[in-house]
Write a structure and sequence with these properties.
This protein is an alpha/beta fold. The chain is built from eleven helices and 13 strands.
Amino acid sequence: MDLSVAIVSWNTRELLDQCIKSVFETTAGIELEVIVVDNGSTDGTVEMLRRLHPQARLIQNRENVGFAAANNQAFECSSGRHFMILNPDTLVLSDLSPVVAFLDSAGDVGAVSCKCVNPDRSIQRNWNDYYPSLIWEVLPISVSQGIHQMVYRRRADSLFDTKWTGGQCMTVRREVVESVGGMDSGYFMYSEETDWCFRIRKAGWRVCHYPGIVILHYGGQSTKQAEARMLVELQKSKWRFIDKNLSRWQARAFKTGLLAKTALQRAGIRLAGKCERHRVRYAALTDLQKAIGSW
């Protein structure tokens, strides 16, 4: 088996259907398998898979065990020389066989990303040369996004080493997973791929941005169903990565800065008014502020 494609799904039935179709319709010349881990969906996902995609292997969880744990389940029953993580809200726009050929030829590369685009075909960031930090957290969104877009557009079609790749689409050599282990299931959602790449690079393997395959990523189709919880999980995972892999003082600084930022955001919403969007955001920030104290 050349490539195992793992897709973790939670209530994304229609998008998952299109994603699986795109994998099989675009790829030829390699032997691949698709493994879907369903994290307790209630939207008919399992029934759809059994009816429309019997060729895909299904692992059915009774509850949402998280992104990392579910991908680890997929790896345990996979057989490909290379293991691809693919989000359910993606479409594969090009043949996947080049990434297999690249990893077969580049023996020191442990993991690669892909070229990722938004629905309007603009470049979506899916690699990073920095780790989570207080500096990036407190920068205004307009500034950080401006920096990201300037850098990503310029380098999207190039092959280069990077610190970590996003989980939208990430391919890892099987021997790497067997050596460094799977994703840390202590992360429920977010930063698990950052942590994984950190460990892969620490073990001496290269992590690269590889533009030879292209996917479209809609983004946030599962997480938007639980916005408040996902905000907490996002920041908790950043803090956990810093505390685990960098230093305690950086983790404390991140936590303190995040508390201050959250308080300012809540104050700004109170001054702005009480429309429904503001009420939802205020509630999410309140949950985050409470959660930070328990870390």
